[in-house]
Structures are given as C-alpha cells and as structure tokens.
Write a structure and sequence with these properties.
The structure is a single chain. By secondary structure, the chain is mainly alpha-helical. The chain folds into two domains: 34 residues; 64 residues, Ribosomal Protein L9, domain 1 (3-Layer(aba) Sandwich), CATH 3.40.5.90. Helices cover 33% and strands 7% of the residues. The chain is built from two helices and two strands. It has a two-stranded antiparallel ribbon. The longest helix is centred in the middle third of the chain and has 31 residues. The structure holds FE2/S2 (inorganic) cluster. The site of FE2/S2 (inorganic) cluster (FES) has 13 residues, from helix 2. Keywords: 2Fe-2S, Autophagy, Endoplasmic reticulum, Iron, Iron-sulfur, Membrane, Metal-binding, Mitochondrion, Mitochondrion outer membrane, Transmembrane, Transmembrane helix. It holds the Pfam family zf-CDGSH. Its cofactor is [2Fe-2S] cluster.
C-alpha cells in the first residue's frame, strides 16, 4: 500500500488563538540564549565543585576487610627477618604487605604512593 492510497485523516479543528498568546520573538532569543549559557556554565561549575568535595570525603580503603570497623595490623619487631615491605596504597592483594599494586595505581591516577619499608640496621 503506498502513501498516496491512504484515506484522508480528519484534522482536528485549530482554535483561534487570542491576541495575548505567547509568541517567540527575536527579543525573547536575545534574553533566552545568554540565560541558557549562564545556566549551563553555572551547572558545570557546581558539578565540578561537588565532585571535588566528594573526592575529599572518599574512602582510601575500597576493598580490604570492609566489614571491620577498623583495619589494624600489629607485628613484633623480632618477627621481621631483615626487611618487611608494607602497603600504604590499600591496593595490595597481599595486604598489609606490598605486592607492587601501587605502581599501577600511580600510573592510572597520577598519585605517588609507595610502601613502608622496615629493615634491620646493618651490623
Ligand atoms: S601495593 Fe600498596 S604500597 Fe605497594
């Protein structure tokens, strides 16, 4: 069936508009465009501000012992052989020990975190 064979649809009546009906004019655009630009820039700035605030409140520990109210580890100095390397980036799969995951984290984020290294003095 082609479009030319469709039956004519009855059109609803178009009411007469009163003379006070709103019509867009050039003056409306002269006001609306700057207002829209200011609103868009303002919205962008507010979203940037809120994102920065939420980053400051973000959690450092994203996956280690999350059901514990506080993650604490304790070691006796006598148990450290000659050297121990502890994670400070909270990304290690062997936490609390460093597994080198800080390197990937630093590359992805531009951060500069690294491990805590404890070693016995040379005798
Ligand atoms: S893996 Fe976290 S400091 Fe090395």
């Amino acid at each position: 069936m082609s479009a030319t064979s469709l039956p004519a649809m009855p059109m609803p009546p178009i009411p007469d508009l009163p003379s006070s009906t709103f019509r867009l004019t050039k003056e409306h655009f002269l006001v609306a465009v700057p207002v829209a630009v200011v609103a868009a820039v303002g919205g962008f700035l507010v979203s940037q501000y809120l994102n920065r605030r939420s980053c400051k409140k973000g959690q450092v520990n994203t996956c280690i012992n999350k059901d514990s109210p506080k993650v604490v580890h304790s070691f006796d100095m006598e148990d450290i052989a000659t050297k121990a390397v502890y994670c400070r980036c909270w990304k290690s799969k062997k936490f609390p020990y460093c597994d080198g995951s800080h390197t990937k984290h630093n590359e992805e984020t531009g951060d500069n975190v690294g491990p805590l290294i404890i070693k016995k003095k040379d005798a």
